[in-house]
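task queued by scheduler; priority normal; single chain, no ligands, no partner chains; default sampling; output format set to structure tokens
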Amino acid sequence: MSESIRLYLDEDAQRTALVRALRARQFDVLTANEAGQVGVTDAEQLSYAAWQRHTIFTFNRGDFIQLHTKYMQQNQSHAGIIVSDQLEIGVITRRLLRLLDNRSGEDMQNWLEFLSNWR
């Protein structure tokens, strides 16, 4: 069996209702607040998530698309990036659960995923 995606929610994405919904379904979720990573740069967020082998979930599309490109150009590895627009929490939760049920941690390795693909 493939390893489930382990999620790291950055500072902007760490919504309490989302964390509760994911944990209620037994997904491994870590928030920036829990990790003591509040106030650090996006690059530091991604580095931390990669070190912890967590796929990062963020609303900060532009910066994380650039960081993904930089990582790939420099042959650096990360555990995946999921970017989303800021939508209603129910919409985000449904899409994220659909993604988590259909992708593994291995699938997400060095992958940039747009949550909008999971309607």
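post-processing summary
- The chain has one domain: 7-118.
- The longest helix spans residues 89-102.
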